[in-house]
Amino acid sequence: MLNSNENGFSEIIRARIVCASKILAIKFYNMTRGPPIPKLLVSRLHCIRRGQMVLHDINMTLHDGGAMILTGPNGSGKTTFLRVLAGFIKPSAGYLLWNGHDVTKSSIYELYKLELHWMGLKDAIKNKLSVLDNVEFWETLERKSGKSCKALEFMGLGHVMKEPAQVLSVGQRKRLQLARLLAIPRPIWLLDEPSVGLDREGVKLLEYIMAEHRRKGGIVFVATHIPIKLEDAMNIQFPPRTPKSKTLIDLM
Ligand SMILES: Nc1ncnc2c1ncn2[C@@H]1O[C@H](COP(=O)(O)OP(=O)(O)OP(=O)(O)O)[C@@H](O)[C@H]1O
Ligand SMILES: [Mg+2]
């Protein structure tokens, strides 16, 4: 039998052992946990099209809330890179990992593609449908409803919602595409020259919705020829693929 003193002493020892083992467990957890897995990781990515190396050794990581601006001259590979990220083109070499999973595997791609919004130069707008139907159609496909009107109003198209889409101007068509991004929430936005056709206020709206999207943890890729405000965005500058065009003096 232990007396009360010995009993108290063994309680203290036991408490200290428990405490020390908890600290060790936390330290071990922190050591083994490492940095969080990036949402998207591109490693040693190459892409050959028609025998030409279009993308050469691209490496990048992006976490939730991140943004990447793609710049470079015409034909340098910006759209190609976006198309690889969208899974429309398979890389010739290298990896594209989403949450650590290889996107080129079809089972993973089926899940990955549900995370994506693609906005290219072809606008996928049905001219005969109304402006509203052009957004609601996609919302219904996602089995959601209720955001299309608000999204169109936000993008300044409230007054033409009931009109057939064919009456829209170039910039208004772009605004309709942006309204789709708002109405159907998806975390990864792949935007190919989203500012083309937009007026100054439209560009401001674009910058605003991209910032808001990132604030909620979304990711944005933007290929652009004009400067776009995207705070703390990373940048891939694609080198020219064709010899620099000759100047007038060269030609004389
Ligand atoms: N469908 C295709 N098949 C084969 N090659 C293609 C195809 N589309 C583009 N390319 C080639 O890939 C290269 C990169 O084109 P890409 O469209 O990615 O350039 P970009 O940087 O987006 O140019 P831009 O600023 O003009 O939009 C170009 O040399 C182009 O000719
Ligand atoms: Mg392009």
UniProtKB/TrEMBL annotation:
Residues 26-252 form the ABC transporter domain. SUPFAM superfamilies: P-loop containing nucleoside triphosphate hydrolases. GO terms for biological process: cytochrome complex assembly. Transmembrane segments: none annotated. This is ABC transporter domain-containing protein. Pfam families: ABC_tran (PF00005). GO terms for molecular function: ATP binding; ATP hydrolysis activity; transmembrane transporter activity. The lineage of its organism: Eukaryota, Viridiplantae, Streptophyta, Embryophyta, Tracheophyta. Keywords: ATP-binding, Cytochrome c-type biogenesis, Membrane, Nucleotide-binding, Translocase, Transport.
